[in-house]
User: Which sequence fits this backbone?
């Protein structure tokens, strides 16, 4: 098992994309600057998608250009197509995150593309990014199950991972898009992927839709996964996935690993302070547990 894990924050992209009201750009920038100073390994800042598709992220350029660049933090953006790639490169992102679905049904609902069409578009995007220093990550939605098709089978995932590696994409995120995964499934699949392709860098992107987010993260850790996406306060959820609630909560995930003696590099008290501010920004309750209950080493006066 790893001795150190890396927490990658997605709240200003995955979290804000489905919020009922637009979060002002200055609030996003202040939040990202605060998060960057807590020790998180990566921030997925925004998505360079059509403002019509995701109105809440229509300020992608403004936010990406306004944030501080803290040393040691990777600044990432989701890119849906060639135009989005060009916009992201102009803003000097560190990493471009491409997204496709392992399920054709979900891919058509979310991206209007089958997996085969997504792979063809990836090749076109890679051609645009060729010669730059930007890193490329591919997120594979519905890795652990599709709300329309159910379980996809390991052979399907292995085939798509092999295709991604064949394109030269060595960073791959395994997404439990609707929280359908269970710990045994996660550990088995992650262990097989790490054994087959040790040269790849795999990330787990877990959702807590059915209360198994932390359990699935622990299962992936036991299999050898070192990188985990998470969203501050547990904010988020795919707008094209029925019933999908938020991502696994960042501060809860950090707390779990730190209580286990696994280093995260994250200043948990600082992260909790940022989470408190997030509740004021979005104007509603956040589902994270540690923010409400405090850390396990918190002590109270008797009586």
Assistant:
């Amino acid at each position: 098992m790893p001795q150190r894990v890396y927490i990658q924050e997605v709240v200003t992209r995955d979290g804000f994309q489905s919020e009922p009201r637009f979060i002002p750009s200055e609030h996003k920038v202040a939040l990202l600057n605060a998060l960057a100073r807590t020790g998180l390994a990566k921030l997925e800042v925004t998505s360079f998608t059509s403002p019509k598709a995701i109105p809440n992220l229509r300020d992608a350029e403004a936010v990406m250009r306004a944030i501080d660049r803290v040393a040691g933090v990777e600044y990432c953006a989701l890119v849906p197509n060639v135009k989005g790639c060009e916009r992201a490169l102009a803003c000097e992102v560190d990493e471009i995150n491409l997204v496709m679905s392992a399920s054709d049904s979900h891919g058509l609902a979310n991206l209007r593309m089958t997996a085969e069409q997504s792979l063809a578009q990836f090749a076109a995007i890679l051609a645009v990014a060729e010669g730059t220093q930007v890193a490329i990550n591919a997120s594979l939605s519905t890795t652990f199950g599709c709300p329309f098709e159910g379980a996809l089978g390991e052979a399907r995932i292995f085939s798509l991972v092999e295709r991604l590696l064949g394109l030269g994409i060595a960073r791959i995120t395994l997404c439990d898009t609707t929280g359908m995964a269970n710990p045994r499934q996660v550990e088995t699949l992650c262990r097989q992927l790490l054994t087959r392709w040790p040269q790849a860098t795999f990330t787990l992107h877990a959702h807590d839709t059915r209360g198994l987010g932390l359990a699935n993260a622990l299962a992936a850790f036991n299999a050898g996964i070192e990188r985990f996406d998470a969203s501050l306060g547990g904010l988020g959820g795919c707008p094209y996935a029925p019933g999908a609630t938020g991502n696994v909560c960042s501060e809860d995930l950090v707390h779990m690993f730190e209580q286990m003696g696994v280093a995260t590099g994250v200043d948990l008290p600082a992260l909790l302070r940022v989470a408190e501010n997030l509740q004021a920004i979005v104007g509603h309750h956040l589902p994270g547990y540690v923010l409400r209950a405090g850390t396990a080493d918190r002590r109270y006066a008797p009586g």
